[in-house]
Amino acid sequence: MSGDEIWDEERWEAFLKAHDRRVSRYMDLFHAFMAKHPPPPGDHPARRAWEEAFRAFLQRKGLHPEDPAVSFVFTERDENDPDAAPDTDPYAEPDADVEPDAMAALAGAVAHDPAADADADALQRLPVYRQAYDLTIDVLRWSDRLPGDLKVRDSALVQFCSCLTQIPAHLAKGHALGYEREWIGGNIACVKRALHAANEALALLQEMRQQPYLRREATYLSLYERTFELRNALGLYVQDLRRRADLGID
């Protein structure tokens, strides 16, 4: 995104998919490097040496060590440390599908911590977020009471819980991007991801229905009704944001 250009939700969706691919590539390389070169515990000089080796490894792969996908790996640099490597611009030569302004905004959204953010109250007051958060917490508490081996063996249950946890996370990212004309398309794209996760959760619930832990009809109906209502609320929220975008209201 540059200048006065405003992305629509489709452009944002394409950007988010490209971002997912980039993060996945970084994580694959990170785990491959870790497997051969585990980071040293505690020792500051050894840790610095390990970080520089990882930086060099990423650069050989044509990637930027300061990318938000892996920047968490590196300790903060002391500007007065003469041995510290100079900072580089992670977007000096961006890939064709990476837009610096959008990437910076998304990095802020990914790092968004609703509990610490000054705007946390507004997110907490968002009805669909509260609905998603409350359902997720209730389901995680319910699943915690199930036998441990069941949670390892039942992939549908694991995926169901994962889908639900993604929903408030996507809503928080969208909220962090904001409601201004420049960013509301990204907000919509994030909410659509939450909607997709809710649809997946509903499909998984139907797959899980015959499992012993859902044999009680009341348990299944409660989970299904609440997930169904959340899915509908997310659909309405997408429509509301689209109307807001069409009107150009910040």
Commentary on this structure:
The chain has 250 residues and is mostly helical. It is built from nine helices and no strands. It has helices spanning 9-36, 44-60, 100-110, 120-125, 127-144, 148-153, 155-177, 184-208, 217-247. The longest helix has 31 residues, at 217-247. The radius of gyration is 21 Å and the shape is globular.
Short descriptors:
250 residues; mainly alpha; globular
Let me know the number of strands. 0
Number of discrete helical segments:
9
Query: What's the overall average pLDDT, rounded?
Result: 80
Largest sheet data: none
Secondary-structure element sequence?
HHHHHHHHH
Give the strand content: under 5%
Low-pLDDT stretches are 78-98, 110-117
Which structural class best describes the helix and strand composition? mainly alpha
Distance between the termini: 18 Å
Shape by Cα distribution:
globular
Which percent bin holds the helix content?
55-70%
Estimated radius of gyration? 21 Å
Short description:
The chain is 66% helix and 0% strand. It has 250 residues and is mainly alpha-helical. The radius of gyration is 21 Å and the shape is globular.
Annotate the secondary structure layout:
Elements: H1 9-36, H2 44-60, H3 100-110, H4 120-125, H5 127-144, H6 148-153, H7 155-177, H8 184-208, H9 217-247
